[in-house]
Amino acid sequence: MVTVEMTSHLYRFFPQLENRVVQVQPGSVAAVLQQVEQQAAGFTDYVLDERGALRRHVFAAINNALVIDRQTLSDKVPEGGTLYIFQALTGG
Amino acid sequence: MNNLILLGTRKGTVLVEHTASGWRPRPVAHDGIPVCYAACDPRDGTLWASLDHGHWGPKLSRSRDGGGSWEETPPIKYPAGARYITQYLPTPDFDPDAPSGQPEYTDATVYKIWNISFGPPSQPGRLYAGTIPGGLFVSDDGGDSWELNRPLWNHDSRGGDLFAGDATSDNCWGGTPASIDYGVFEPGIHSIVVDPRDPDRIQVAASSAGVITSADGGRSWSGSNRGMRMDYLPNPEAPWGHDPHFITHCPGQPDHLWQQNHCGVFYSSDGAASWKKVSVPEAGVHFGFPIAADEKDGRTAWVVPARSDMERMTIGGGLYVARTSDGGESWQAFREGLPQENAYDIVLRHALDISGDRLCFGSTTGNVYLSEDRGESWQCLGHNFPPVYSVRFGRG
User: Fold this and answer.
1) What whole-number distance in Å separates Cα of residue B292 and Cα of residue B265?
2) Can you tell me the distance from the alpha carbon of B113 to that of B133, in angstroms, rounded to the nearest whole number?
3) How far is B59 from chain A (nearest CA, A)?
4) What is the CA radius of gyration of chain B?
5) Which residues of B26-60 are buried (b: 16+ CB within 10 A; e: fewer)?
6) Would you report the helix, strand and coil content of chain B in percent, each value rounded to 5?
7) Which of chain A's residues have a Cβ under 8 Å away from the Cβ of B107?
C-alpha cells in the first residue's frame, strides 16, 4: 500500500479524508490519485486540470522528491511510499 | 424594489440585504476564497458565485435557498482537443530580413470563470459563462452541465478550427492582465449580453479582442468593432485587438449598447453594428472599467471614471460617478456622499450595477456605495469589505 498525505486545505472540501490515513494501492501518481478520487468524488478536479496535469500551483512529491512528470503523472509511487500533495505558498 | 445585493470579493461572497434597520451585510459565504463574480438568476432567484481558487481551479457554487446553503456544481471543463494559439515563434528557417512565425498551440484549461449570464424566461435553464482563456460555455440544465461554444472558439479570429488541425488563419486575440494571477496572459470573455427580444442574438466581449455578435444563437459569430478606436496598436481601426472592459445594453431598448473600453467610452444605438466614441476627457469621462445602462432609456448610462490607463486611481483624489442622458453627448458628475479627498478607489468591470433607480458599486479599496436616486447621491454600505470584484443586484 502507499499513503497519501495532503495539505489540510483540502480537508475543507473533502472532510471525509480528514483524521484518517489515506492508503491505496501502489502505482503511478495518476493511478494513486484516481484511487483517492474513488474515496472522495471530485478530488482530482481540485488537484488536476481537465488535461489530467497537476494544477499550476499544486506540488506533489513522492517521499522526498518532487514529482517530475506533472503532465501525465507517470512517476511511480512505490510500495510503502508516500505521495504528498501541497499547495504553493501565496500572499494576501 | 430590489432588496438584495451580491458582492463578489477577494475573501468570499457577501450578501447585503435591505432590512427594517437599513442595509446590512450577512456573514461572508465561501470564507477566504476569492469570488470573482456573484449574481442572481432573475428567473428563479438562484444565486451563483464563481470561486477563483488560487490553487484548486475555478469552481461554480450555487444556492437555491437565498444564500442559506451553497453547493458546488460540476466543473466547467474544456473538451479534449480544445487548443488555442498563445504566441508566434520564429520558424525553423527564420530569416531576420523577412521574419516569419509559426503558431505555438496550448491545450485549453479553465483559468477563470469570469462571469455568468442568464438566458431569457423563454429558455429556462440556459446559462452562459465567460472564461479565461476566452471560451464561452453554455448550459441548458441550470448549470449541471456545460458545453463549450465551438463556433466562437473555432472562429477565424482565433486561427480557425484547431480541433481539426493546424491554424487556417491568424490569431487576433490578445491577453488580459486579469489572467496574470495564473502565470499566463490569455484572452478572457467578461461580458455576455442576450437580447431580450430575440435570445438568439448574443453579444460577448473579450479582452483583448473586441465585441463579437451572434444572430443565430451562437452557431456563427462576427466581429462588431466598427467605429472602435484603439491607441495601442499600429492601426487604431483594426477589426480586432480592441479591449472592451465591459459592455452592457439597455434592456428596454436593446439596440442601445454601452462599452467602457480601455480607450474610452463608446456607445452604439444600432445593436453594435457601429460604435461612437463618447468620451469627454475634460469631464474626466474616458478611462475606467464598469458601465451601467438605464433599464428603459437607451441614451442614459453611468460610469465611474478613473484617471488613466497608466494611473489607475481616482481623478484628483475624489471619487465620483458620471451620468449621461443624451447618448454620451454630455456627462454630469455626481459626488454627494462619495469621498472627495484621499480616495484611491478603483471600481472593477463587474463592480457597478443598476436596478431601477438604484445603483451600487464596490471598489478595490473595500468600499461599497449605494444610490437610490439614479446616481445623484450616495450612501456608504461599508468601508471595510475586502477588495470588491463584482456587485450585482439580486431578486426580490
Assistant:
1) 12
2) 9
3) 9
4) 20
5) eebbbeebbbbbbbbbbbeebbbbbbbbbbbbbbb
6) 5, 40, 55
7) 51
Query: What are A1-37's pLDDT values in tens digits?
Result: 999 999 999 999 999 999 999 999 999 999 999 999 9
Residues 49-68 of A with CB under 8 A from B: 49-51, 53, 55-58
Cα B39 to Cα B208: distance, rounded to the nearest angstrom? 24
Report chain A residues whose CB lies below 8 A from the CB of B56: 10, 13, 46-47, 55, 58, 87
CB pair distance less than 8 Å for A9 and B107: no
Asked if residue B124 lies in contact with residue B133, where contact means CB atoms within 8 angstroms, the answer is no
Test B77 with A9 for CB contact under 8 angstroms. no
Q: Which of B176, B212, B172, B147 is nearest to B85 (CA)?
A: B172
Cβ-based neighbour number of residue B114 at 10 Å? 29
What residues of chain A lie within 8 A of the CB of B75, using their CB?
45, 50
- Please give the full DSSP string across A41-83, using - where no structure is assigned: TTHHHHHB-TTSPBPTTEEEEETTEE-S-TTT---EE-TT-EE
Q: Please give the grid coordinates belonging to residue B370.
A: 449605494
CB B127 within 8 A of CB B181: no
pTM of the full structure: 0.95
How open is the CA angle B139-B392-B125, to the nearest 5 degrees? 20
Cα(B383)–Cα(B43) distance, integer angstroms: 32
3-state DSSP helix/strand/coil % of chain A, to nearest 5:
25, 30, 45
Chain A residue numbers with beta carbons less than 8 Å from the beta carbon of B53 are 46
Question: Would you mind telling me the total number of residues written for chain B in this entry?
Answer: 396
Q: What is the DSSP string of B97-136?
A: TS--EEEEEEE----EEEEEEE--TTSTT-EEEEEETS-E
Question: Taking CB atoms and an 8 Å limit, are A57 and B10 in contact across chains?
Answer: no
Distance from CA of A58 to the nearest CA of B (A): 6
Residues in chain B closer than 8 A to A53 (CB atoms): 109
ipTM of the complex, rounded to two decimals? 0.88
Task: List per-block mean pLDDT (blocks of 10 residues) for chain B, which spans 396 residues.
Answer: 92 96 96 97 97 93 97 97 95 89 96 96 96 97 98 98 97 86 87 97 96 98 97 91 97 98 97 98 95 98 96 95 98 98 97 98 98 98 97 89
- How many residues are there in chain A? 92
User: Whole-angstrom Cα distance, residue B289 to residue B263?
Assistant: 11
Q: Which amino acid is at B313?
A: M
